[in-house]
Amino acid sequence: MALYDAPRLFGFELESTENLSFIPLVVRFNLDRFGQRISLDQWRRLPHGDRELLARFPVEDDAAIEPNFDRALAEMLRTHTDAVPETFAPDSDPIWAHTDVVPETVIRQSSLCGIGLPSLGRWSELSPFQRYALAKLSRKSEVNHDFVPAMREFGLAD
Fold first, then answer.
1. What residues contact residue 13 under an 8 Å CB cut-off, 6+ apart?
2. Does 130 map to a domain?
3. pLDDT tens digits for 22-33?
4. Which residues contact 151 (CB under 8 A, 6 or more apart)?
5. Within this chain, do residues 23 and 82 fall inside the same structural domain, yes or no?
6. Residue 19 and residue 66: Cα distance in Å, rounded?
7. 37-40 contacts: CB < 8 A, separation 24 or more?
8. pLDDT tens digits, residue range 49-78?
């Protein structure tokens, strides 16, 4: 599978990633799926071109990208931060992968933000990457400033 031509950023992320100063959701998605974790400091120590490359990896469910993502990230960190990514066992059944239930955290975040809940039908129509984004943005118990813009971008809020 080929890399995207440009970093895969949602519209609502363009400002919040501050030109890749913060780890975009596409990179977080692949880190979480492949059981890797890096710090914000490690991310920021990577050259912009490397951060951009990591943000161009596919988000489709394709095991063929795992070794490429792993190798690229490990080499970048070794070269520029003299570190390796922390590894962990990825969640084998993440809530965002389910289309039969809207996660409780998404329901809670919708309520905190004062917007309507996504219907189960609309939730199930989202791509896995979109469901991941909403689940990631709603994991904390306080309002996330990107949650409402994400819901709007995905057609779930006015």
1. 24, 25, 146
2. yes
3. 999 999 999 998
4. 110, 113, 115, 118, 134, 157
5. yes
6. 25
7. 37/85, 37/86, 37/87, 37/88, 38/73, 38/77, 38/85, 38/86
8. 999 999 998 887 666 666 688 889 999 999
